[in-house]
Amino acid sequence: MREPILALRGVSKRFGAVQALSEVDLDVYAGQVVALVGDNGAGKSTLVKAICGVSPPDTGTVTFAGREVRVETPHAAQELGIATVFQDLALCDNLDVVNNLFLGRELRRGAALDEVEMERRSGKLLRELAARIPSVRLPVAALSGGQRQTVAISRSLLGDPKVVLLDEPTAALGVAQTAQVLNLIERLRDRGLGVVLISHNMVDVRAVADRVAVLRLGRNNGEFRTHDVTNEQIIAAITGATQNVVSERVARLREQSAGDDPLAAGSAEGGV
Amino acid sequence: MSDPLAEPAVPPPTPATELSSPKEAVGGWLQTLRTGDIGSLPIIVGLILIVIVFQSLNPTFLNAFNLVNLCLQIAALGIMATGITLVLMLGEIDLSIGSVSGLAAAVLLVTHVNDGFAPLVAVLIAVLVGTLVGTVQGSIFAKIGVPSFIVTLAGLLIWQGVQLRVLGEQGTINLPPAGTLVRWAQFSFVPRWLAITLAALIPVLYLLFSLLTRRRRAAAELPVMPLWLPIAVAVILFVLLQLIVAKLYLDRGVPWTFVFMVLVVVFFDWLLRRTAYGRKIFAVGGNIEAARRAGINVDWIRISVFALCSTLAAVSGVVAAMRLGFANQQSGSGETLINAIAAAVIGGTSLFGGRTRRYAPLLGALVIGAIANGLELLSLSSDVRLIVTGTVLLAAVVIDALVQRSRTSHGR
C-alpha cells in the first residue's frame, strides 16, 4: 500500500485527570476521504486540534509526507499544508466573499489592497470547485448555510494544502445544501487532497468517505472501508456495543464474500 | 452572439466591455447598489431637506458668509468623528475623546502661551499627548480585558481632571489674537485659483482612477461598471464642486482647516477600505474569532485604533482651540463627545461594529453642523438644538435599521 500523506501513531493527550486520547493511530491518504466518527466526547475534536496545532499531542508521532513533524501552532500546520475548517466556520459576516477568502493573507499592490487580483483568483477558485455563489462581492451574511460552508472550505484551499480537516461540515444544513457540500468534498478528493471528515451523519459518511475510522473513549475502535461495512457495524463500534475484535472479524468476512449480500445492503439503508 | 446575422444594436465602445456582456455588467453593478454602496443616499437626501428647511426659515442660511462659517465650525467635529468611527468599527466605544480634546487644547495653550514653545512644537506636543492617552487606554482594554466603555469612562473623568490641573489657576488661557495659531485656524483660506484648480482636478483624478481600475478589471475578465457611470459621477462632482467653490469665494473662500478635515476623512476612508490594516479593522469588528484564526493580531489592531482615535481627538481639540482663540475649563466638555458619536452614527457607522458608510464622518458632521448653525441663526436656544439633533440622530438610525431589515428580508 502507498504511503499515507498524514500518519498518526500512538497519539495521546491528557487534560488534567482526563485522558482525552490514548494511543490513537490514523492514516490519511492523498485523494481519499477518511471519515472520523465517534460519540460525543470520543475525542474527535481533540484529535483534530492535535493535528491542526491548536493543542499539540502529549506523546505520539505525526508523520506528514514521509517526514516526522511536530505541529505546535495552527500557523505551523498551515505552513506544512494542513488546513482546518472548524464547525463555526470563522467567517466575517460584514465582509464579502473575496475578503473572507483572503482574510489574513490579503494581496497588496503598493500600499493598497489588490482587489482586482483577489477577485480574479476567488472567481477562479470557486469555478474550479464548481461552487455556486451568486456573486463574490456579496457580503457573507447574505449567503445560505451551504454557501457559507463552501466559502469556508474554499478558503482553506488558498494556502494550497495537502490535507483538509472538515469539522461537521454538513451539520445544520438542508438536504440540497448538504448535497452541495458533499459534492465539494468529492472535488477536494479528486484534486488529490487527503480529506478528514468529522461527521455524525452516517448517510453523509457513506456517501463520500472511502474509509471510516471510529474513535471511542479516546481510543481507536475499528477502521473500515466504507464499501465493506454496514451502518450497524459502524454504530456498534461507536457505541461499543460490539467488541473491537468482532467488528474487525465481520469486516474481514464481508471483504472475502465481496459484498454481494443484498440483505446486508438492505439493512444498511434502513440503518440511521 | 451565436447567430451571425444578429448585429449588436450598439457596438461596444471599448474592447473592455466585450469581455463581459453589458447586461451582465449592469446586473453586477445593480447588485452592488442593492447591497448598500449607495447607502449614503438617505443622508444626502436628509442633508438637502435640512438645507431647504433652514433656508426657508432664514434666507441668510445659504449665504456665502454663513457657509464659510459652517466650514470653519465643523472642521474640529469632522476630525473627532473620524477617530470615533474607527473605534465604533471595532464595536467598541471611546467616551474619553471630549476630555482628550480638552486636554490637548489645554496642553497647546500652556506650552505655547505660558512656556513659549514655537506654534508647531506646541501643536505636536498636544497631539502626542493624545496618542499617549489612546495607547494607554487601548492597552488596558486589549491586554487586561477591561471593557472599553469602562476604561474610557474612567478616561473621561481622569483627562478632564488633568486638563483642569494643566490649566491651573488661570482657568482660561487666550491665544495672542494676531498669533500664528489663530491665523492658521481663522484667517487661512485657500487661494481662489488653487481652489478652482483643485475642484477641477478631483473629478478628473476620480475619472482617471475609475477608468484605470475598470481596465484592470476588464483585463482580469471581471465584471466592469458601465462606462457612463464614472463619467456621470465625475461630471456631477465637477459641477457641484465648482458651484460650492464659486459660492464660498463670494465671501472669504475655503478655509484650510476645512480642507485639512476633508483630507483626514478621505485618508482614513482609504485606510479603512483599501489597505490590509483597514481590512483587519473590518474583520475584528465583524467577527473577532475569525480575525484571530486568520492570524490577525487583534491586540495590536485594538491598541492602534484607540491610539489613532485619541490622536484625532487631540488634533480636533487643537483645531477647536485655534479657531476659538482660547482654551478653558469647558474646552472639550458638554456636547463635544456626543456630537462626534452622533456624526459618526448619522453618517452610517454601526454601533455594533464592522460597518460604516463612505465618508461617514464628513456627512455626519455636515448634518450636525448644519442643524446647529441653522438653529443658531434662528436664535433658538440650546433646548431646541438638543431636541432637534437628538431626533435627527434617532431618525438616521431608524432609517438605517429599516433599510437593513428590508435588505435581509430580500435575502441580501
How would you characterize the overall build of this protein?
Chain A has 272 residues and is α/β, with parallel strands linked by helices. Chain A has a single domain, classed as P-loop containing nucleotide triphosphate hydrolases (Rossmann fold, 3-Layer(aba) Sandwich), CATH 3.40.50. In chain A, strands 6-9-10-3-11-12 form a six-stranded mixed β-sheet, with helices on both faces. In chain A, helix 5 packs parallel to helix 6. Chain A is globular and about 60 Å long. The two termini of chain A are 32 Å apart. The C terminus of chain A is likely disordered. Chain B is mainly alpha-helical and 412 residues long. Chain B has two domains: 295 residues, ABC transporter involved in vitamin B12 uptake, BtuC, CATH 1.10.3470; 66 residues. Helices cover 74% and strands 1% of the residues of chain B. Chain B has 17 helices and two strands. The longest helix of chain B is centred in the middle third of the chain and has 28 residues.
How are the SSEs ordered, and which strands pair?
The complex is a heterodimer of chains A (272) and B (412).
Chain A: E1 6-15, E2 18-28, E3 33-38, H1 44-52, E4 59-64, E5 67-69, H2 74-80, E6 82-85, H3 97-101, E7 108-109, E8 112-113, H4 115-128, H5 145-157, E9 163-167, H6 175-190, E10 194-198, H7 202-208, E11 211-216, E12 219-225, H8 231-239, H9 244-256, H10 262-269
Parallel strand pairs in A: 3-10, 3-11, 6-9, 9-10
Antiparallel strand pairs in A: 1-2, 1-4, 4-5, 7-8, 11-12
Chain B: H1 15-19, H2 22-37, H3 41-57, H4 64-89, H5 97-114, H6 119-144, H7 148-167, E1 173-174, H8 180-186, H9 192-219, H10 228-248, H11 256-274, H12 276-286, H13 288-293, H14 298-324, E2 326-327, H15 336-346, H16 360-377, H17 382-409
Antiparallel strand pairs in B: 1-2
GO molecular function, one term (chain A): ATP binding
Organism (chain A): Catellatospora coxensis
Domain ABC transporter (chain A): 6-242
